[in-house]
Description:
elongated; DNA polymerase, domain 1; 4-stranded antiparallel sheet
Amino acid sequence: MALGKLNNMVCEKAEVREKRYFLTDGDGLSLQIEPTGRKIWKLRYYIDGKQKMASLGTFPVVSLKEARIAAAKARVDLADGLAPGGKGKRKGADQAFQALALDWHEKIHAMQVVPSHADRNLSRIKNLILPHLGEHHPDDITPPMVLDMLLKICDSGRIETAHRVKSIISLIFRYGISTGRAQRDPTQDLAGLIPSYKTEHFPAILDKAELGGLLRALDQYGGSVIVRSAARFLPLVFCRPGEMLSMRWQDINPEEALWYRTTTKTQTEMISPLSRQAMQILAEVHSLTADGEFVFPALRGKGRMLSNTSIKAVLDSLGYAGKMTAHGWRAVARTHLVETLNFPESVVEMQLGHRVKDALGRAYNRTTFLEQRTGMVQQWADWLDELRAMPAPSSPASAPGEQNAWNQWRA
């Protein structure tokens, strides 16, 4: 069948129907019209007697002329016994995008983030990315191919997931470029082409009286000692929950009350001072978990850290479902440290693990504001004690029980 049945006006004015339908251009090329209004170029071809369909991008990002050129190139591949898009052009599965993606995850990503985050992204790679791109060589993956995949995710209502998948693909390609396995990152051409999404903020309680009630409720929680300790420790350090749950005993310096950690979002190494109240909780947990790797280990499954759902379960069981989250303590701390306790935003942001830069645009190192942050976290812990309507101890010596637990650990 000859080409030329379609023109740009027909493509632009194609009506949206309740069911998917096709506008045929000829010789296997057609424009697929989705009920959502999305228009996808499709090429019908045959391999080993079986009919298959290849996506050539979306209209109008890929014009009618460009679709015809892409279809012509695909037919050249077919004449050589190759599927459209270059499948099989480069021999060896170790050169396919799948190998690059899994290599990046194992050698880079899984080493930089907490296990739960690494597992989520591995699931996205295997279930959302590799079925569409896995068999292609990285250099054969084009912006239209990636865009088509991302828009399919958007069509299913998972717009935020599509943005996360795009970021993952970009990181994989950047790794491929640095290791000589890819020439460029096709996601760089997709800026503004997938729908934006509205970020939902984590629920957080800012009222002082309500915060006091929540803190008292956490103290009286009757569940596991490890879970209760983690739930009480988090307000004192107000880091990202995954960073606290992945805390290892080797990361703690009990003599100087310091925690050496890497932030999960910016991958910044930093030193976090710990208040006397935080050290007291660690001292109590030390007698229970010091023989393992994690400070707050999972209740079941040796060698695993406590799940973030455990903290959520505590808050939900205390009646705070939809009102407060583990991540919400960061908003609480940032608000009251700046507005109530009058600490400089730069110091607070540094303690939150955000990337803080000096006047010349250089990121501060992990020891920046350490002295100020040491005083800040202690004042913060004392202020939380005041919210409980209990007098804050002025020094370790004023609380014999606390000093005994701490000294036993240090010994």
